[in-house]
C-alpha cells in the first residue's frame, strides 16, 4: 500500500477514507497533507502514480484502463473496510470517475461521495472537442503549461525541474486524451456528486456529470483559474466543503 498511497496521518478509527487522485504530472504530497487539516474522522489517502516521487524509476501509465487495473487491487481491501469518498482534480477527476465506475461494476463498492474538480465529463462535447496538448512541441507545450498556471514561472525556466516534471505531465495528458467513455444510458452511481471549478478556467461542462449518479448533484465555483485549489483561501473553503459533505458518515459511524 505504501508504494501506491501516501498517508501522512493514519487514522485506524476514522469514519471515512478520502482517496485523492493527482492532476496531470502531479504527485501525492499536496493531497496527503490534507490529512492534517481535515478532522481525524477522515483518513486521507493520496494516490502516487508511477514515474514520480518514490516511483520515479517506474514506467508511466499508458492508459486509464492500466491505471484502474493497477489501483484496484490496492484499493479494494481498504475500501471494503469502511465508507470512502473520492476526490480528483483535472486528470484526477477522470481517474477518480474511472476508478469509481470499476469499483461499482466489478466489486459492487460505491463511494459515499465523489468530488470532481476542474474537468468536463469525459463524454461531454466540450471534452471531446478540447484541443490535444500532449504532442505539442516543447516550446508550445511550455507556453501552454505557463498559461494554465499552478507552476511558478521560475521552475519552468529550470532545466532540472523540466526534466522531472514535463515527461510525467505529457504521459498523463496522453492517458487523458486516449480515455474513451460513453455517456451512461442510466446512472452508474447513486452517491452524491459535487463538482468544483475555477471561474477563470477554460469552460468545463460540469452539468454533464449529472447523469452519472441518481443521487444529489451540486456545483461550487471558486475565484481563480485552473489551479484555484492551490490558493490558500480557496483550499480552506474546499476542505470545509468536503468536511461538511462527509459529516453524515462521521455521525453514522
Automatic annotation (TrEMBL):
Assigned keywords, A-Z: Fatty acid biosynthesis, Fatty acid metabolism, Hydrolase, Lipid biosynthesis, Lipid metabolism
One Gene Ontology biological process: medium-chain fatty acid biosynthetic process
GO molecular function, one term: fatty acyl-[ACP] hydrolase activity
Catalysed transformations (reactions): (9Z)-octadecenoyl-[ACP] + H2O = (9Z)-octadecenoate + holo-[ACP] + H(+)
Keyword Lipid biosynthesis: yes
Top-level EC class as recorded in UniProt: hydrolase
E.C. number(s) listed in UniProt: 3.1.2.14
Top-level taxon in the UniProt lineage: Eukaryota
Matching Pfam families: Thioesterase
Domain Thioesterase TesA-like: 19-246
Family of the protein in this entry: Belongs to the thioesterase family.
Protein name, UniProt field: S-acyl fatty acid synthase thioesterase, medium chain
Source organism per UniProt: Menidia menidia
Lineage, broadest ranks: Eukaryota, Metazoa, Chordata, Craniata, Vertebrata
